[in-house]
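Worked example

This section walks through a single chain of length 129. The input is the sequence exactly as stored; nothing has been trimmed or padded.
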Amino acid sequence: MTDTVADLIIRIKNAYMAKHKTVVMPASKLRENIVKILVEGGYVSSYAREAQQPQDVLNIDLRYINGKPAVVDVKRVSKPGRRIYRSADQLPQVLGGYGTAVVSTSQGVMSDKEARQKKIGGEILFQVW
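Given that input, the structure is written out below as tokens.
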């Protein structure tokens, strides 16, 4: 697997489309930090990291609002073949502020709003709304 971020967001999107309550995937620090941002943004309800052999797994509980998925769509911005970097003042506003862009910065993975507050830019991983 070369693109773990794309794998994470597509597994979540596919689970929503199939109306699953949870999704299970291999854990990593990057995936766990991204899922924390999705929990804070209200796109998933919760997650738990479980120790298993040979690799830990993430159990993600999906969130539905009146029977509809909390995630409408996801767009991968920076890809392995083309990385997209932006400064803090050039970070995109997803749907006029209703969506969230996940940014990998020198201080860790964070949402676009948090990166603007800290005035740091970085690689735009994906947008979710």
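What to look for: The chain has a mean pLDDT of 96.
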